[in-house]
Design a protein that fits this description.
There is one protein chain. The chain is mainly alpha-helical. It has 2 domains: 46 residues, no CATH class; 38 residues. Helices cover 48% and strands 11% of the residues. It has 3 helices and 2 strands, in the order ββααα. The chain has a two-stranded antiparallel sheet with strand order 1-2. Strand 1 and strand 2 form a beta hairpin. The chain is elongated, with a radius of gyration of 22 Å. The protein starts with a strand and ends with a helix.
């Protein structure tokens, strides 16, 4: 994205279609090409925070439920990755 100009409370920018697709997590032609006058709410972009938080909660639950297995696996990995 390149800022071409400024307004009182905003910016006039040039943004590639690929950048917008990436921001909305809609790769490989999943997002239609925009037309003049189309409006995008950048505040509703792809919410990585929520997905990350949900994943961490699930991982925490898994670790808590399988403490013994996790301990054995991590100890095994530590031994396996030690260099002589």
């Amino acid at each position: 994205m390149i800022v071409l100009g400024k307004t009182k409370n905003g910016y006039i920018c040039e943004v590639s279609h690929g950048e917008i697709e990436k921001f909305y997590n809609k790769y490989w032609g999943q997002m239609q090409k925009l037309e003049v006058g189309d409006i995008l709410d950048l505040g509703k972009g792809y919410d990585f925070h929520q997905k990350t938080q949900e994943a961490l909660i699930k991982i925490s639950g898994f670790i808590e439920a399988h403490k013994d297995v996790v301990k054995v696996v991590t100890e095994g990995l530590t031994i396996f990755t030690k260099k002589d």
